[in-house]
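Exercise: predict the fold of this chain.
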Amino acid sequence: MSTQAGTGWAQLRQQARSLETQTEALFHTYSQFSTPSTISPTPTDEEKKTEAQLEDILERREALTSRLSLLLSSSSDLTASALKQNNLSRHREILLDHRRELARLRASIATARDRANLLSTVRSDISAYRSANPEAAEADYMLDERRRIDNSHSIADSVLSQAYAVNENFGVQRETLASINRRIVGAASQVPGINGLMARIGAKKRRDGVILGGFIAFLVLVLFFWG
C-alpha cells in the first residue's frame, strides 16, 4: 500500500511540474498581446485561446494539489510526510503566484488596449475635424511649421551663444598667458646676470646642435663610403 502511494505521489508531482512549465510558456505567449504596436482593438481568437488554456491549466493544477494533499494525509511515514509537506507547500505557492501573474497580465493587456483604442479614437476625431474644416487644418499646419522654425532658431541661437562664450574664454586665456609671460620676462630682467646666463645657455644649445649635426653627417659619409 505504501509503495502504491509513493508511486502515485511521484506521478502526481511529475504532472504538477510539467503543468508549471507549460504555464510559464503560456505566460510568455500571453504577455505578447499587450505590445502597443501590435495590440488589436478587441481580443483576438489566439488571445482568447491562450487565456483559456491558462485558466484550464491552473484549474488542473488546483485539482492535482488537492489529490497530493489527500495522499499526504493518508501517509503513515512521518519522515517522508515532512518532505512531501514541503513539496506540496511549494506547489501551492507557485500556483498562487501564477494566479496573480495571470491577473496582472490580464489587467496589463486591458490597459494597453484601452490606451490604444483611445489614441485611435483621438486620431480619428482629429482627421474627421480636419476633413470637415480644411481651413482649420491648414492653419494647424502653418502653426506646426512656425513652431518647428522657432525651435530651429532657438537651437541656432543656443549654438551661437556657446560659440561666443568659448571664443571669449579663449581670449581671456590668451590675455592671461601674455600677462604671465610679461611678468616672467620682467622678473628675469631684474635678476642680475640672468640675461647673460640665458644667452650662454642658448649659445651652448646652438653649439651642441652644430656638433650633433656634424656627427650625423660624419656617420652618413662613413656609411656611404663603407657601403
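Check your answer against the key: The chain is about 90% helix and 0% strand.
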